[in-house]
Design goal:
24% of the residues lie in helices and 43% in strands. It contains four helices and 20 strands. The strands form three sheets. Strands 2, 3, 5, 8, 9, 10, 11, 12, 13, 17 and 18 form an eleven-stranded antiparallel beta sheet that branches. Strands 14-15-16-20-1-19 form a six-stranded mixed beta sheet, with no helix packed on it. Strands 4-6-7 form a three-stranded antiparallel beta sheet.
Length: 365
Amino acid sequence: MKFKFYFLIFVLGIGLGFGTQFLFNKTVEGPKCEAGSRKIASVPPNKEDLSLPVKPSKLVRKNIEKTFTTFANLVPWQEVSLTPPEKVTVKDVLVQTGQKVKKGQALVNFDSKLQDYKAELASLELQLKKEEFQLTQRLAKKNFVSKIELHKKKKMMRIQNLRHQIQELSSNSSIKSPIDGIISEINLKLGDFINDPRKHQITIVDNNAFKINLFLPQEVAKTLNRRSIIDIIHEGQKLESTFGNVVSVSPVLDLKTGTISTQIAAMLPPMGWRGGMYVKVLITLASKRGVLTINNEALVKEKGKSFVFKIINKKDKKIVSKVFPVFGINDGRFTEILSGLNENDKVVLKGQGSLGNLAKVKLVK
């Protein structure tokens, strides 16, 4: 029995020794490469692997403008609506819609009782002369001069009334254009009897100049003056533009909309422009030349403020520093830098989303 017991212990000891050696070899040896050499199981990462890729951008000097854009319709600078006289009949319509007319040109003629009034006036004047002569002869002996004077006054009153009616009818026998322009509307036709003149108007517009009525935000309107730069652009089959002038800026602020009524004039429009055209109005609020600017894509918002990541060389690595510059005007693509950055500085243009202050970066194109 003792022999078997000692033999078992001997066998277990040998087995334990081989097992321990096997496990030790597996732990130290690790996997082999193709050449049979050993490879370290855990290798410290390269420091460059911790750098975040970013796209850099340089600050540039350029001309920059701050503008405000809105859209509106052209309104003819001068528009006249002519109303015919009452109780007349249209005899001739001498123009049609779209026709150009000159100042003083006859547009419509009317039939009236003008000739009848003239004939009556001539008859009364002649009759008055005859009666005056006859009465003077008969009543001169009886001293009735006062009655003659009364009779004369009655006749003269009638003559005066006729002269007034003749003058009125003479002016109402036709409608003439008071301006150079184009007939935009005519509500008269041959044979019409004018009972309600408001229903029979002729409208003439002057397309040599236009006005634009705008309601601008207060911060825009308060910058305008007579020297303000305003471009008026029509994007039709071809791009056409002209300049505009500030005519008036209301002193009253609309409290509901926060806007101010403003009128712009386009005094030299391209040929073919007409009332009602839809145009773009581009107002230059500020303009600077050769100023230091930054691409707007480099700006990052934080609690209502904008900052940039400035790229800094530190020994053999690059890091970024969060900088809050002082900004000037913005044209939608670039923003003026007043202070906080210099002309030779580089900033992060893309890749800001994963960055923090003093983060390591590597530059990519």
